[in-house]
Each structure stands twice: as C-alpha cells, then as structure tokens.
Amino acid sequence: MGIHIRKIYHNEYYKAVQVLNKIPEFDSVFYLKKFEEELSDKETIVLLAEYAGKPVGCKIAYNRYFDGSVYSWLGGVLLPYRGQGIAGKLLDALESEAKSRFFESIRFKTRNKHVAMLIFALKNGFQIVGFDKKGDVDDYRIVLSKEL
User: Fold this and answer.
1) CATH number at residue 61
2) What pLDDT shows up at residue 27?
3) pTM
4) 121: burial class by Cβ within 10 Å (0-12, 13-18, 19+)?
5) Could you list the residue range(s) of the whole structural domain that residue 101 is in?
6) In the chain, count of helices (H) and strands (E)?
7) 58: in domain
8) At 10, phi and psi to the nearest 5?
9) Residue 81 belongs to some domain of the structure
10) For the chain, what is the domain count?
C-alpha cells in the first residue's frame, strides 16, 4: 500500500488542520474555524496525502494575487513520513491541478531558517523572486515562484 494524494473539500478540511498541527516547523496552532475563514472566499486547491487511509501530509493553495499565480499557502509532511517523496507528489498534484485551472505559476513564501524547504523548492524548479524582512534574519520570508 502506497501514498495516495487526493483533493479534499470543506467537509474534510479538519484533516489538513490535523496534519498542520503536527508539523514541528510551524510556530502557531491552526484552528479549523480560522482555516475555513481564510479559505472561504477564495478559489482553493486543498490536497491530502494519505498512507493506509491516514493523513500524513497536505498542501493548501489559493488564488491570492489574482495575477495568474496560485499561492501555496501551507503544507507539510509528518516527520515519520519524510524522505519518501510525499512532498514531491503533493507538489506534482498541485502543479497538475493548477494547470487544469489555467494558473500560470505557483508562488509561496518560506522563512530563511527552513533550509530544507528552500532546497526542495530550488530542486523542483522554483526561483527566488524576492524577500520580506520580518524579525531576525532567520525569520526573513523568501518569496519563490515557478512557471507552469
């Protein structure tokens, strides 16, 4: 039995929230109500990675900039499941879904301290297109983009 990636909708957003709350790199707790409010008025792509029916990763994207790009807002893979290509499968599924909706690119931000995410992005064709100075250097936001 392998990893299965599928789209989820409003009635299953709680599964993505459960995954996000177990990702150690995130500094805050995610609440379903806030999550639903954030996505309520946006065109969304919410993907769930499952192993044996158990949520082990997710990717949440939405139309933020209205410039032909989709913004990859949140995502991650649970620690015990890392290194198995799940993040890549989620990215492939996001790219496929974004293309089918006629998005031209994917954009996201990550913090300077998340080196593994930066390396993953660069290895998968993203380019650094900017950064935002917030807090200490470790917390600077690196802006990345990939043409589809």
Assistant:
1) 3.40.630.30
2) 81
3) 0.94
4) buried
5) 3-107
6) 4, 7
7) yes
8) -45, -45
9) yes
10) 1
